[in-house]
Specification:
Elements lengths: L14 H14 L3 H14 L8 E2 L5 H16 L4 H12 L1 E2 L8 H9 L1
Parallel strand pairs: 1-2
Helix pairs in contact: 4-5
């Protein structure tokens, strides 16, 4: 049986995530790709969230305005775009249409408007 070919992915991580990745790789003596493989397996096997996710694009305009104000406040205190997206996901179950945390570009757009 021939092995499945591997796929390559390119993406950016913020500094905090790179530091976590490097610490895990060093402590567990694994490659970065092995860390991601283990993280994907853990995510796939975790129980479903208890609260329903809230999709930002499906919110009524008044609700979106209040979220944008909250995001601008978080940004004014120095939060990175990615960190704000993660925080909204964890604290408010707010996500994109893909059920993942809002992307940095979405957060950036909220701050710009």
């Amino acid at each position: 049986m021939t092995p499945r070919p591997a796929s390559e992915f390119a993406f950016r991580l913020d500094r905090d995530d790179v530091a976590v990745l490097n610490r895990l790789a060093g402590r567990l003596k694994l490659s970065h790709s092995a860390i991601f493989t283990k993280a994907l397996a853990a995510l796939e096997n975790r129980p479903a969230p208890r609260k329903a996710l809230v999709i930002y694009a499906h919110l009524a305009e008044p609700d979106r305005v209040s979220i944008r104000l909250m995001v601008r406040q978080m940004r004014s205190t120095g939060g990175s775009f990615a960190a704000i997206g993660k925080r909204l996901y964890v604290e408010r179950n707010l996500c994109g249409t893909d059920n993942m945390p809002l992307g940095a570009s979405t957060i950036r757009g909220m701050c710009a408007v």
